[in-house]
Amino acid sequence: MSQGLVIKIVSEYCYVLSDEKIYECKAVGILRHQKLKLTVGDKAEFEILDEINLKGSISGFESRKNLLHRPRIANIDQVIIITSVANPKFASYILNKYLAFVEIIGIKPVLAFTKTDLIDSNDPVIKEINSYKNIGYEIFLINNKITSDSDWKRFKTIFKDKISVFTGQTGAGKSTTLNHLIPGLMEKTQEISKALNRGKHTTTKNELFPVDGGYIADTPGFSSFELSEVNCSELAQSYSFFKINLGKCKFRDCLHLKSAPGCFIKDAVEKKQFPEFIYTDYLKMLEEIKLIEGGRKF
């Protein structure tokens, strides 16, 4: 029995990468009868039926450490959140919403900021970006026009031995970044829509691509994350700063509101230990979730 990584699924066929070969496989009856649905990222156990034509039959797969449902991808090590600093302008709320969601599902976030050539080092956005680094997040400043600099070289080292998912705001340069990482990848990139000040969706498939000793995926459906998918309690324990200080608030069910008595997070914001702009975005998300749940505003 051989083992390999499911890198693509088309109809009833799974494409499994093993020993630098890609085998076209079908799942055997036992998997179908047990209604076990294979997904991209699964570590499959398969039998080689035809070595010349690279055909195989999958009999099982290893237990998953995680599973993203929309789109389906398993065993993710990190999520690369792509955010532009300009054109479209830096949108902290969108980034902080992605960040909260990634933290809630328990996957490591990595923040990559693109189009850095469009601003100078004194731009106020740089201060906000560094705020993420100050509270423990791994950040990268990327110029997609110069891919030979030290920042790009450092960025490329994070993919080794990992399955990485790419997501981010529309028009931020996600497909362009992928094209630089994987030369020859036929991902379309479109011009920014001036009327809407946002890019058009250009990625339509879900597939793992080998790069720098690891695998990366662009996941178009991931960008449709909605706050209706989480509740207030989950959001209150989302950011890593919230997690490491869990239990330090006066009340166990504290939502870190401005009116909350004895709230460690609120006090940390006042002491400038946690960025106020992220806290403001958090409160906005909390209000949205409350309205979705049918309750009154806090």
TrEMBL record:
Enzyme class label: hydrolase
Cofactor note: Binds 1 zinc ion per subunit.
Binding positions for GTP per the UniProt entry: T114, K115, T116, D117, G168, Q169, T170, G171, A172, G173, K174, S175, T176
InterPro entries: G_CP_dom, NA-bd_OB-fold, P-loop_NTPase, Ribosome_biogen_GTPase_RsgA, RsgA_GTPase_dom, RsgA_N
Primary location class: cytoplasm
One GO MF term: rRNA binding
Keywords, ordered alphabetically: Cytoplasm, GTP-binding, Hydrolase, Metal-binding, Nucleotide-binding, Ribosome biogenesis, RNA-binding, rRNA-binding, Zinc
Localization per record: Cytoplasm
Gene Ontology biological process terms in this record: ribosomal small subunit biogenesis
Domain CP-type G residue range list: 65-225
Record: residues binding Zn(2+): C249, C254, H256, C263
Annotated EngC GTPase domain residues: 74-223
Record keyword Metal-binding present: yes
Keyword Nucleotide-binding part of the UniProt annotation: yes
Gene Ontology CC: cytoplasm
Family membership noted in the UniProt record: Belongs to the TRAFAC class YlqF/YawG GTPase family. RsgA subfamily.
Subunit (UniProt): Monomer. Associates with 30S ribosomal subunit, binds 16S rRNA.
Protein's recorded name: Small ribosomal subunit biogenesis GTPase RsgA
Annotated organism of origin: Spiroplasma alleghenense
